[in-house]
Design goal:
This protein is α+β, with helices and mostly antiparallel strands and about 140 residues long. It contains four helices and five strands, in the order E-E-H-E-E-E-H-H-H. It starts with a strand and ends with a helix.
Length: about 140
Amino acid sequence: MEERAYQLRRSEHPKHPEKPKISQRVASRVGSVIPLSIDHKPDRSDERQRIEKAGGFIIWAGTWRVGGVLAVSCAFGDKLLKPYVVADPEIQEEEIDGVDFIIIVSDGLWNVISNKEVVSLVQNITDAEEDFGVEG
């Protein structure tokens, strides 16, 4: 299973009536989304070349799949595809503070919802325990 992480820097005035602008381009801008990882999909040219060089193959089966099975090319725990599927993600490090947060989910969510939509769903949560009954 592949994960993708994003960091959002909240507006300094969270009660401000205007929603913060979300940009994936400018990390320092208030209200910006900062991608911390890159999707590893078998149809990426660099990933396809790496897989084929290792002796593997990708085919179309509803989506591009390594060995006709796995829809991601970076994962851990798949013993049969281990020679072709790496477990080392491409990441970007960012310092976070009390107004920042990180979103980590599996690849399935990113297939059906955009980065901006995910951020808008979680950006106003101040206390997960209180808002959702989640125990820390």
